[in-house]
Amino acid sequence: MKFPGLRKIKHYFPVSQPKPQLPSFEVRPELDTYIVGLDQTIVDVVASVSDEFLQKYNIRKGLSNLVEHGKANLIYQELVAQQAISDHFAGGTIGNTIHNYSVLADDKSVLLGVMSANIALGSPAYHYVCHTSSKVDMNHLQGVAGDIGRGITMITPDGERTFVIDPSDMDELSPDYIPTDIIAGAAAFVVSAYPLRATDQPIQQAMFKALQDAKAHNVPVVMSLGTRHLVEENREQILSTIKDYVNVLAMNELEAEALTGCADPLKAAEAILDHTDMVLITAGPEGLYLCGHTDDNVKRESSNPIKSASLADFNQYEFSRPMLHANCDKPLKVYSHIDPYLGGPERIKNTNGAGDGALSAILHDMAANHFHKQVQPLSGKHEQPYLAYSSFAQICKYANRVSYEILVQNAPRLSKGLPEREDSLEEAYWER
Ligand SMILES: Nc1ncnc2c1ncn2[C@@H]1O[C@H](COP(=O)(O)OP(=O)(O)OP(=O)(O)O)[C@@H](O)[C@H]1O
Ligand SMILES: O=c1[nH]cnc2c1ncn2[C@@H]1O[C@H](CO)[C@@H](O)[C@H]1O
């Protein structure tokens, strides 16, 4: 486990101690620190298109559009004929998130989903496997006869991305392929709301089996909301899933509005915190918000400038560490916000995956806390059952920095970790 940021001596963190066991790529629940993600396995086929192209096929811009195979094929063939396809990348919102987690933490994660049992050169499954970190354990995937999903990622001249999803066999995941022991030992279980639109498909039962396993073993459940119309169309089911299972909810400001009716991210976060423990709301050029709970007895005042917006002095306690609502004697809602790192890249070609990147940073901080608690159970850092190692403010910085990296490299999956010299996130930009 690489720690998210160099820490001062008081934060003793034995990252360099060699592990006595022989190395293994397969996750061993009793020995490893890891997170588990469940996803509709999808390869992203990236293409440049005009706005007229979207209109011609009646595709809703900026959203993830689920279409039937025939229509997706027609679109794909036209893009091939126009030579508009630039490349194939591994995708899937949770696949991206756990890949990025493994790159940032330099540690293991487990992917649950389907994979073509026979992988031909150049097939969607081939591209997926080629572009996934070797630290992502794929030993628990379910083999299927057909292809994994294909997500045609259409980039319009304004840099906006629109998905056309051809599901193929991506929703075939059966509950039999949910390994309870692997989930039980995880630092977190992460899933998106996308499987909720796969009505009557096996992946829905698989997802609920995994959620029940995580809940039964007190593994924090992290859910990302996917895309705005998914929330609009499945609002009640999503809300009840959040109330029953979810500890950390991630979304962009449009999804937050669809869920709560509040266009203002702070007000939306305040409303969502009535149902869950922590909330990430990314807001594009407005930066991101991380909000959650802490116990009033251990709240910490921020030394940053205090901000007011729709909530007065909202970031006053952003130096507190996140806790589950149920673990607080006197729960206090905490809000933190950060503007884009360095104001954002000079030119953004495509924002695909920037939100997933922010979530992987949060997962890294949560897993670091889990690891630290295992190796230093008596440390003062664990006097309370905290959900993450760092404060809301520090996690915001880290999440923001990772989003920036995704934006500059123009792909949803990190090809390398963050630069070492910036590890503390205090050097360079932060102390200016
Ligand atoms: N135009 C921009 N300028 C500066 N920073 C940006 C811009 N767009 C995104 N960011 C950064 O990336 C983060 C996440 O972006 P955004 O809100 O677009 O995520 P998203 O819509 O959830 O993305 P995705 O669903 O593709 O993962 C923002 O919080 C911000 O830090
Ligand atoms: O229906 C879906 N299920 C799972 N992942 C999806 C779906 N639609 C889009 N993405 C994934 O979201 C990522 C960017 O956040 C893309 O990589 C895309 O593959």
Automatic annotation (TrEMBL):
<protein>
    <recommendedName>
        <fullName>Guanosine-inosine kinase</fullName>
        <ecNumber>2.7.1.73</ecNumber>
    </recommendedName>
</protein>
<comment type="pathway">
    <text>Purine metabolism; IMP biosynthesis via salvage pathway; IMP from inosine: step 1/1.</text>
</comment>
<feature type="binding site">
    <location>
        <position position="400"/>
    </location>
    <ligand>
        <name>ATP</name>
    </ligand>
</feature>
<dbReference type="InterPro" id="IPR046405">
    <property type="entry name" value="IngK"/>
</dbReference>
<keyword id="KW-0460">Magnesium</keyword>
<feature type="binding site">
    <location>
        <begin position="39"/>
        <end position="44"/>
    </location>
    <ligand>
        <name>GMP</name>
    </ligand>
</feature>
<keyword id="KW-0808">Transferase</keyword>
<feature type="domain" description="Carbohydrate kinase PfkB">
    <location>
        <begin position="134"/>
        <end position="297"/>
    </location>
</feature>
<dbReference type="GO" id="GO:0006166">
    <property type="term" value="P:purine ribonucleoside salvage"/>
</dbReference>
<comment type="similarity">
    <text>Belongs to the carbohydrate kinase PfkB family.</text>
</comment>
<dbReference type="InterPro" id="IPR029056">
    <property type="entry name" value="Ribokinase-like"/>
</dbReference>
<keyword id="KW-0547">Nucleotide-binding</keyword>
<keyword id="KW-0660">Purine salvage</keyword>
<dbReference type="GO" id="GO:0005524">
    <property type="term" value="F:ATP binding"/>
</dbReference>
<feature type="binding site">
    <location>
        <begin position="282"/>
        <end position="287"/>
    </location>
    <ligand>
        <name>ATP</name>
    </ligand>
</feature>
<dbReference type="Pfam" id="PF00294">
    <property type="entry name" value="PfkB"/>
</dbReference>
<keyword id="KW-0067">ATP-binding</keyword>
<dbReference type="GO" id="GO:0032263">
    <property type="term" value="P:GMP salvage"/>
</dbReference>
<dbReference type="GO" id="GO:0106366">
    <property type="term" value="F:guanosine kinase activity"/>
</dbReference>
<dbReference type="GO" id="GO:0008906">
    <property type="term" value="F:inosine kinase activity"/>
</dbReference>
<comment type="function">
    <text>Catalyzes the phosphorylation of guanosine and inosine to GMP and IMP, respectively.</text>
</comment>
<feature type="binding site">
    <location>
        <begin position="92"/>
        <end position="96"/>
    </location>
    <ligand>
        <name>GMP</name>
    </ligand>
</feature>
<dbReference type="GO" id="GO:0032264">
    <property type="term" value="P:IMP salvage"/>
</dbReference>
<dbReference type="InterPro" id="IPR011611">
    <property type="entry name" value="PfkB_dom"/>
</dbReference>
<dbReference type="InterPro" id="IPR052700">
    <property type="entry name" value="Carb_kinase_PfkB-like"/>
</dbReference>
<feature type="binding site">
    <location>
        <position position="197"/>
    </location>
    <ligand>
        <name>GMP</name>
    </ligand>
</feature>
<keyword id="KW-0418">Kinase</keyword>
<comment type="pathway">
    <text>Purine metabolism; GMP biosynthesis via salvage pathway.</text>
</comment>
<feature type="binding site">
    <location>
        <position position="355"/>
    </location>
    <ligand>
        <name>ATP</name>
    </ligand>
</feature>
